[in-house]
## 1
Amino acid sequence: MAELAACKAEYFPQLLTFGAEGLQQGCRLVEDREFGKSSLLRAAGTLVDFLVEYRRHTNIGTAVAANQIGIEQSLVAIAPPGDSFEAEAVLVACNLRLADTRGSHISAESCMSSKTEMVAVVRAHEIIAPYQTLDGQPAAFEEIGRAADRIQHEFAHTLGITCLQEAIPGSLRLLALDGDPLTQMTQVAEEYDRLYTPQLITPS
Ligand SMILES: [Zn+2]
């Protein structure tokens, strides 16, 4: 963790952390006239490059929202599943929103913008989340479980909301600076599993 904190400070000074004003400002919607234009593509490229580099340096991080690194438009970069990825494989979603949800469950979450914080959040179990591609075409994520959590976490960022603000009261845990972050995160997630009964509510 100490290494992670030092790594963030050295390589990613543009990354805003919890409490920063910019994180609490929602992203502005991409306007019709911006789609396909070089300024939007440049912003998207900056976000993708950030995610690729962050993953390369830290071995964690699968998605990032634009306002986490000071980009104003509503953009979210999502990496494919797996250990490593190239910039070409990262999807950028514009104007992401939640259209439909089913059920709910407890999600154990941390954030690139956290320092050592980890929290439990109630998330929808299944989601449909429409977005627009960089050239303005309509598209949508249809996700379930962890994959749905990730989309909801990033969507909240675009509204200026962090998982810390969405946390179940009393669920905040601080990871130790001298431990391996992934091991600790797994342990905290197991603790949440014992503490909170997942409520999977599927409407008939
Ligand atoms: Zn986050």
## 2
Amino acid sequence: MTNRKDMSNTGTGPQRAVAGVIYAVALVLVLLPVYEWVANAMPFYSDPYDLATGLFNLPGRVFVLVGFVLMFYQFVLGIRIPALERVFTRATNLRRHQTLGKIGFLLILLHGLFMLAYDRALAGRFLFDPYRVIGIVALVLLIIAVMAAWHYRALKLPRKVWKPVHMLAYVVFPLGFLHARTLGTELATSWVVNVLFSTLFVLYCVLVVYRIYIAVAGGAGRRAGQPR
Ligand code: HEM
């Protein structure tokens, strides 16, 4: 247990300034795709031509545009990044990981449900083309990953079980990205969203490599410290 205070509240001026910049960037990254979505949605809402699009497709899209960015934040907040821990304590990062993680999960879940409802309303049945199936598989894996961490006490899951199950989230993100690149309207029509999501995906890959590195280095360190 650390007594170190959160530098965003108590640190020096420069540390508070860095915290402020991080908050601002995090907010802008969430708002950018919403702005692009509004540009696409406005003409439709001002001249609606079919109820299903307005009720299911457009809301489902904006839910996931925000949910996907929040999901990216979960990797940043969950992995121990020294530069970030100089500004916010590990406890603060983990608290935000849990809160934003739940919000992101609910938005992505709503996206899946709204898109299923949209297909059902428009085509009269659920559609199972390969890229939709990738989305469905990603959603099922995400539900398992989130439930394992959210309800591990109720489910009586020991850490060595729920933690690896929670790592399924690492599979969900690239699946979600592939699915979005092939189906998403905002990804196809807005270069801003396209560049943003592609950049998040590249950063995700960097974080995965870093995560593997700290796992390997940590394992080697523990083995070296073991009595022979
Ligand atoms: C039941 C599961 C899912 C179904 C049926 C589904 C269906 C769809 C459909 C039909 C689209 C295209 C919407 C449009 O532009 O008209 C779409 C877009 C998208 N989906 Fe999914 N999806 C599911 C799960 C997921 C999951 C789990 C993720 C992320 C982890 C995800 C991320 C995205 C993203 C980012 C877009 C792009 C939105 C845009 O560009 O407007 N989806 N999905």
## 3
Amino acid sequence: MKKFTFKNDGIGSTDLKISDYNLDKLRKFAKTNIDFKNLFQSKKLFKRLKNHKGVNPRPGMNLAEKAQTNFFFSNKNLVAILNNLLGEGWRVLDYKFVVALPDKFIPKWVLDECKDLPIPNLGAYLKPKNRNCTFFRGIDFHQDIIDFKNRGPDFITFYLYLDNVSESDAPLIILPKSHKLQAQIFPHKISELSKQTLGFEDKRGNIQKFEKISLTNKKGSAYYWHPYIMHGTNQSKNIRPRISLRVLFDKNSHKNKNCLLDKINQKLGTVNLLSETRSDRDKNHFVFEKGNFLKTHDK
Ligand SMILES: O=C(O)CCC(=O)C(=O)O
Ligand SMILES: [Fe+2]
């Protein structure tokens, strides 16, 4: 695989050299505290929902908060990476477990409901008590700024694989250098130019080419990316769920105008703050737009 760097490509990779003991313990904690056999509510209750808001983990309703993660947050390599990228004074903006859920754990009615959704976040279908992790059945190309209206690119996403991730485990698929597109409203117009090259169509109809990289790797591998990097995942084809720890770190925007993230952002030119990041759902977060590039092109 071609080497990419955060500085040039908007995505970096690292091995924090976390012991298998700690990785396996964290994975096991997640696995034993997720009620895989009882995740979903009934179709009847789901249909009664007045909105689909607030279905992701939040303070007080977050399994990762209850886990022993000191080995991660105090990891010397991690701290060095963050000091360089965000400057001193960075903070944890959010952290949670993300689960790529294979179909065998998903009831048929839920599979039918979310068949063509661009972001099959399974949150709304879950029993409320199970909304302490994020469950996906694949997610189409997006930028993580999607969750932050009116916010600048002052944070990064850090992703730690707790499983070995092969092609069948819904590896992250990323488009290096796509942060240069700046913040774009989801969903995006993506087309396949060749097996390894995708085209992004901007508002004026110009197509920009990007290489596509699938991040298969062993457990303990970690990636971190700019909030404008386009990425997504296919649905898992494995029989076991793929669990990862996803952490957002943000910088102190009053300080460190010279950290790596600032330098990269300066090169992007004037930052556009989006007052709406999505056009595929209504004010109650009901998704009305269908279609998923990754799903249609998943072979
Ligand atoms: O792990 C996944 O399938 C989704 C990854 C992703 O895009 C995210 O968590 O921001
Ligand atoms: Fe994402």
## 4
Amino acid sequence: MQPAEGVRFVHSAIDTDVRALEAEAFAAETDAQLDAYAARFSLFHAIAKTHNDGEEVSLFPELDRRLPRVAATYLFDHEDEAALFDAITGQVAAARGASPVTRPSELAKLRRHAVALTEHVTAHVRKENTLITPLVMELFTPPEQAAHVQAMIGTFSPELLAKALPWIVANNVFDERCAYVGMMQRVMPPERFPVACGWIKAGIGDAAWSAIAAKVPGLPV
Ligand SMILES: [Fe+2]
Ligand SMILES: [Fe+2]
């Protein structure tokens, strides 16, 4: 597995969580349900935005130097996605503040945008997995790819990374969770890997972590 292929774990998590968020938007009616949706959406927004920012500061400029104009179409998607994030953030607040009479119409707007976000984001990550990852592997050596990955990870604050790593693990199927943790074990500095494992364990719970540790040798338990 080359470093550029590791992006699939983040993309899978984005795909899984945006679909779950859409279902949650359709189920949310009460104040408590809307608050829970807002909290979950806020984390998704922070991680997906930082992922996009990371691509824009590391990968896209490098790609532009080797193959001009390809990255522009992906940047275009990121800008549309940012507009949907802002629209949904406003709509969930409007629905939360609405009276019982006006809440149904506010919820209808939120739900329409939740569907739009799913369709947009799932197509975008599929396009990157299908077209960008193979192109990056063709244009860049594994050490160059590893430098892009490090730069992308560097756009996450430690606080957000502590939430993003368990979120990635939680939103991947079991075999992919193991593959992701195994990849981090190979690429992370040895002194930092146990810290990452601690974040993941705290986020996904002891039982889910033990299942991964039973499959991937050498993990802290
Ligand atoms: Fe992207
Ligand atoms: Fe991406």
